[in-house]
Every structure is written in C-alpha cells, then in structure tokens.
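Treating backbone geometry as a discrete language has practical consequences that deserve illustration. No coordinates are needed to read the tokens, only the vocabulary itself. For completeness, the protein is quoted in full, as a sequence line and a line of structure tokens:
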Amino acid sequence: MKKFKILSKSTLVDSPYCPIEKHIVEFHDGNQGEWFVNTSRDAVIVIPFLETGEVILQKSYKHGGGEVVTEFCAGLIDEGETPEQSAKRELREETGYGGETFSKIGEVLANPTGSTMRYHFFVAKKCTKVGERKLDLSEQIEVFLVENLEEAKKLLTDKNTKTSSATMAGLAFV
C-alpha cells in the first residue's frame, strides 16, 4: 500500500476544536484529488474505578449528534500535556474525582479516513472525590456510578443507550 502524496495543503477552518485542512493529493494510481482532514489534537478516554469496583460514567449532551450520550470521561489533550496528564486533568474537571493510579490500556485512530486524532485509553483506579468539577462553558455533564464493570458494559451496550464509538472502543481494552 502506498500513502497518498500530499501536493498542497490549505487551512479551511482554524479552530482549536475542529481544525480542517484541504489537501490536494496524488493517489496510489497517479490520479489527483481533494482530501479533507480534521487535524484535531489527540484525546483521552478515562475508565475510572472506585476502590469498591464501582465505575464512574457520565451523561453528556453532544451537539454534533444532537443527543445526550452515556460515556466515559473524555477530552482533548492540551498542548504540552502528556496523555496521562490529560487523563488526570479531564477526570478531575469533568467528575470531581481523582485516581490513585492511571494505566494506559490502548490507543486507536478516531476516524482514520478523515482525521489525525488518536484516542488514548486509560484506566484510573482507586478513584475518590477530590473536589468540585470545573466544566467548560459548553459542557453539560451528569456524573453517576454503576455497580461494576459488567453493569457498565450492560448499560453501554444496551440497544436503548446512546453512547459514543470512543466509549465502545474503550470497552474492548478493559
């Protein structure tokens, strides 16, 4: 397989949350075409466990999908942060919890056809409430606990539960 040869790039959207570039590329057969790429920063997905085995989940309104989804804690990695630092920060900001240990358990491409973004998956163990949440202005998040990982899997894979592909991918790693 051959990578596309990038002949030129131009920025169409210069936004920290959804930067879009237009590429003129040469395909493997020599033909040329346009390709649009979201060059967003990578993100973390945190699967947090209390010492009791309970799992922290959240319901969040997602404007792109126009739905409230049930998911794990997640967010973009800030410039200068490592994925682990971001996982700790996002868990604290979105849930008010901190974890004693954070272990990276996997990584996937978010949308390899049209995006450079990768999801970095972490398990946070021995989580405890450490303070108040610090949500962004656009975030609407309700945090709740489920009894254990099996109950979380049942809920997240229920046909009536709206969730995200990133959360579903996280289930494959735990």
